[in-house]
Amino acid sequence: MTQVKKFWPILTGTHRYEKTLSTRGHGKGIIINAPILAYLIETANGRILYDVGCDYSKIADEVKRKKFYENEDFPFGPPQMTEEQRLPNRLVELGLQKEDIDVVFCGHLHFDHAGGVCEFCGAEVHVHEKEFEASREPADAAYFKEDFDCPVNWRIYKGEYDLVPGVRAVETPGHTAGHMSMLIEMPKGSPILLCGDAADLSENLEKEIAPGLCWHDDEAMAIASIKKLKNLSFETGAELWPNHDMRFFESKNCFPKWFE
């Protein structure tokens, strides 16, 4: 039986960029406004965050912003993030403190998914072994080594596993070396399958298009993970949640209310 009690999608910022960053080889010249999301899962055995968004200081501080975002690796500039959107402040709206988070689960370690880990030094931080290694190289420009200069309570895992009954980590490599999605069995409604960046947009799923950035340019691996997600959705009845699709997010956004 699932231990999941409540589930919130939480907007932590937005990022405007060319669609080709989400759909490989498709959307040149089209600018999209992508949500940067975290997901809070309250269970009978503690609270889990899937992803934690950006490090606010690298956006708000002019010197840091120039260093990290105003360079050739970021032709579309920095994400947009307000003080209010910092994840600890969003949690306060729910009557929670950052110390109330027991586990941070990083689907992968790119800046817009794991940068905010510095806000949650008291929590366990789960990540796939291959992803941890890729971040240390770093494998691409979306990894900021400085995101992890703070004391991080790492828990390094291989393969798939249950965090608690009803919350399962699912291997979906391709966008990055150790990318992980998450299957959540809800107490009342259908299961939710968080795709992470294995599928930024609904289009990635519907047309089986790889994300723009693929680890070692392995498009086939990324598409295999999309197919895996679709098959798992069919087997479990889970609803697939793409990760950077504004239209999809707005159809689901009920914060501070929750899903059951």
From TrEMBL:
It holds the Pfam family Lactamase_B. SUPFAM superfamilies: Metallo-hydrolase/oxidoreductase (SSF56281). CDD domains: AHL_lactonase_MBL-fold. Keywords: Hydrolase, Metal-binding, Zinc. Its cofactor is Zn(2+). The keyword Zinc applies. Residues 35-244 form the Metallo-beta-lactamase domain. Signal peptide: none annotated. PANTHER family: 102 KBASES UNSTABLE REGION: FROM 1 TO 119443, QUORUM-QUENCHING LACTONASE YTNP-RELATED-RELATED. Belongs to the metallo-beta-lactamase superfamily. This is N-acyl homoserine lactonase family protein. It comes from Sulfurovum zhangzhouensis.
